[in-house]
Every structure is written in structure tokens, then in C-alpha cells.
């Protein structure tokens, strides 16, 4: 009886240690490559316009075009390999206005 209890305790202890090791070694998902909270932005400036390319995990997700004498527009990649033009951004990036005048 004492031997069975000792073996049970040993197995419970081993299982507990294994679960603890799994929890401790689990990746922190907020810091992995899949974090899409902030895209990488590449800005290109010419005399007539400013182009901002937005990449998430190395994939182009949006291009913002700001012409000097025209309204801003966005280009979004479509499934067929072409770009769709829109007047509003499709990126969901948290932004706050602190001051405006």
C-alpha cells in the first residue's frame, strides 16, 4: 500500500513538473512574428507626391499615395495581383489625437 502511494505521488510530481515546464517555455505570443499591431512603413518622397508602403510580416498590405495638389488615396492588393484604389485606409492601427489646432 505504501509503495503504491509513493508511486502515485512520484507520477503526480512528474506530471506537475512537465506541465510547469510547458507553461514556462511557452512562447509569448505578443512578441512573436505574428504581432500585427504595428506595420513596417517605407516612405518614398518625390517632387509631386509622397508614397507610404505598409508591410505586415513582410507582406505589402497597403500603399498610401499623397499627391501635392490632389486628395490622398490608397492602393490595396487584390487577389488577382492588381491593386484596388480606395479613398479610405483599410489598416486598423490604433491612433489617438492628442492636440489639434
From TrEMBL:
It comes from the Bacteria. InterPro entries: DUF2782 (IPR021357). Gene3D superfamilies: Protein of unknown function DUF2782 (2.20.130.30). Residues 1-30 form the signal peptide. Keywords: Signal. This is DUF2782 domain-containing protein.
Amino acid at each position: 500500500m505504501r509503495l503504491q502511494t509513493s508511486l502515485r505521488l512520484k507520477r503526480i510530481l512528474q506530471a506537475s513538473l512537465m506541465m510547469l515546464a510547458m507553461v514556462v517555455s511557452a512562447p509569448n505570443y505578443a512578441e512573436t512574428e505574428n504581432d500585427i499591431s504595428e506595420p513596417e512603413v517605407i516612405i518614398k518622397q518625390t517632387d509631386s507626391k509622397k508614397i507610404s508602403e505598409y508591410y505586415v510580416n513582410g507582406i505589402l498590405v497597403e500603399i498610401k499615395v499623397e499627391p501635392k495638389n490632389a486628395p490622398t488615396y490608397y492602393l490595396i492588393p487584390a487577389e488577382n495581383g492588381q491593386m484596388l484604389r480606395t479613398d479610405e485606409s483599410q489598416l486598423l492601427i490604433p491612433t489617438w489625437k492628442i492636440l489639434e489646432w
